[in-house]
């Protein structure tokens, strides 16, 4: 037992080595600046995708010029001629207004009102109408409205804006869509001024169909 005790006395106490790894400090200021930088870049990308401004580098890589569904041909007509067609069609309680006639109607109206837009184009599909135009003073940016014809409670023709696109970006309808749709509504209301109350309105490819209540 004495030898064992002597052996224990000869042992030196163990030295514990403590290693402290450097811990990176969390700097809130750097994180905030990084988030702000990312947000600014994101905003510039979205603005460039509208096509309203030519932004160096960003427009080249992020903006792709959109196109209408198709270009509607135009015919030589005006509101009075369209009104005559409406009155002529009342006898059958249904008329068909082609997208070419609607486009011509809008072209004449825009030229007289000077709204700062040009090349109106209206295309009728099965369930929606695409009303497109360009803004010459804003880099010829293309605006597209997607409309659905419907009747108001007092049987007047109006349009509901389902979507508004400026370039490739969807924007709030009240920004451009709601004010611009009034142009189409006003022109058609003028043409239908002497017609009986509308009973139903719907779309067919290339045409807006309106039926009237029997006199």
In total, the number of strands is 8
Q: Beta-sheet strand percentage? A: 25-35%
What ranges have pLDDT less than 50 throughout 5 or more consecutive residues? none
Helix content: 25-40%
Order of helices and strands: HHHHEHEEEEEHEE
Alpha-beta content class: alpha+beta
The main pleated sheet reads as: 5 strands, antiparallel
The N- to C-terminal Cα distance equals: 127 Å
Query: What would CATH call the class of the largest domain?
Result: Alpha Beta
- Mean pLDDT across the residues is 82
Number of domains: 2
C-alpha geometry: elongated
Keywords: Membrane, Transmembrane, Transmembrane helix
Transmembrane segments: 31-52
Brief description of this entry?
The chain crosses the membrane at residues 31-52. Keywords: Membrane, Transmembrane, Transmembrane helix. Helices cover 36% and strands 26% of the residues.
Describe the 3D structure.
The chain has two domains: 29-62; 79-212, Bactericidal permeability-increasing protein, domain 1, CATH 3.15.10. The mean pLDDT is 82. Helices cover 36% and strands 26% of the residues. It has helices spanning 2-10, 28-50, 58-62, 79-89, 99-113, 177-191; strands at 94-98, 118-124, 129-135, 141-151, 157-166, 169-171, 198-204, 207-212. The longest helix is centred in the first third of the chain and has 23 residues, at 28-50. A hairpin with a 5-residue loop joins strand 4 (141-151) and strand 5. The strands form two sheets. It has a five-stranded antiparallel beta sheet with strand order 2-3-4-5-6. A three-stranded antiparallel beta sheet has the order 1-8-7.
